[in-house]
Amino acid sequence: xxxxxxxxxxxxxxxxxxTASGVCRSIQQNLATxxxxxxxxxxxxxxxxxxSQALICATLAEHSAVTAIVGEEDAADLREDGADQxxxxxxxxxxxxxGKDVSEEQALAWIDLGGVTPDASTPAFWxxxxxxxxxxxxxxxxxxxxxxxxxxxxxxxxxxxCPNLPGPDGRQGALFTAIRGEGAxxxxxxxxxxxERKAIRVADVxxxxxxxxxxxxxxxxxDQDQSSQIAAKLGITAEPVRVDSQAKYAIVAQxxxxxxxxxxxxxxxxxxxxDHAAGSIVVEEAGGRVTDVTGADLDFSRGRSxxxxxxxxxxxxxxxxxxxxVVGEFxxx
Length: 333
Fold this sequence. Notes:
32% of the residues lie in helices and 21% in strands. The protein is built from nine helices and 14 strands.
């Protein structure tokens, strides 16, 4: 039996994600002046990615009983000679929240708290994507701040900050939360506590012909040609919802769509744990199912990647086995 107080950890996670999401929103509104870099894998990284990770890691380090953090970013690029502008902007955004006395080195050290590689000696840890969907962020569209708590290889708490999705009151900005075995909720992103939460539930879809797909905007993230063929085989005629980031999990959890496919584009590719931990528990606690393309549960116990899984299938639940059966006809296992 875990001794972790999940309700308390959720409260810390919500506070951290709300703060970081507010900073990300402000930066997105002023993208013309925001510095960005290209990582070794050619993916973009922005001031907001780094500032978000620094702020969330700082909050968790101060308040959480779980000290290990597996984050997407590290501060190595910020320490390069040519990164002066980016580094200065990151530190300035951290100081907006944490105070003007925060040193440059302290801000970078907070980012590097996310450098843990979990193993058998790390029974509990946080995994963080400070901005999931950076390309969507740069287009002024959907992105998510995603934070999940893992215990013994299973996600137990998840928080998704989605600044451009509507909240329960219709205003822009939503926060999605879940605790294993206790349900999933939506809250206003700008709220002050957890009291404004509203339970969410997946769609009541029992035949695939009544389903709607949700998939990535970026075709490089999933094989969209295969997705279209799978949709046709399942008898789905509705146009897919295309959004960036783990906002797709939030859309399935609310019943706006009922299937999310992330099909492998390369046989050797393995998903990163921070891209799916928070979103998967939100869907599962809303009544849905999340597996890989073979129908196997996601195994978060293998380090920083889902080494034992290929691709992702999330659904409203009742149709999941039918979807997996058709996916298996198109995806090499």
